[in-house]
Amino acid sequence: MWRGIFILLLLVISMAAADAQRRQINPIPFAHEPCSVLDNRPCTPSYCSPLEPGPCIPEIDYPYGENLQLTIESVPRDSDRAKYQKPDHDLATIGDLFAELRTCWSPPSDHARAGMQMSVRFSFNKEGGLIGPPRLTFATAGVPADTRTTYLNAINSSLKACLPLKFTSGLGGALAGRPIAIRYVDNRELGK
Which residues form the signal peptide (predicted)? Predict the structure, then answer.
């Protein structure tokens, strides 16, 4: 009888261990593994509770992501019109900054091309000015050089017309030196 209880107890323990191993997942990709203070390797310590196996997986919905990337269309869609309205206060959030940058854009009238896309990257200082000129990172392939130059000049003049932006001290400190990438899309119907 004791032998039967012992075998049953071993069976229950092995099933519980197998279940615990099956539920463990790796929430942190690549080499950043959760660890213990007793491990002798680099790791990312994390846990939910001493009663739960495995690390926590944060479920936070970040609206903008780690990179500051923005797409500005020359003619916004009807569903996006609210995003193209200039804020009537100092810029306190990234959403305010993006709305201000959208209202600054004025596409060129000469050498314009339907479907033209151009991306630039730049950074602000904490006072709302640019740190250096915007750098061109992408232009639609097969576009003549004078058209690219016209669009780049329009981007530079649009940004200069809005500067310096009026950041709150918190946003100015958080944005200072961080790269911002903007993709300009000329979706106007030209020639009609």
Answer: 1-20
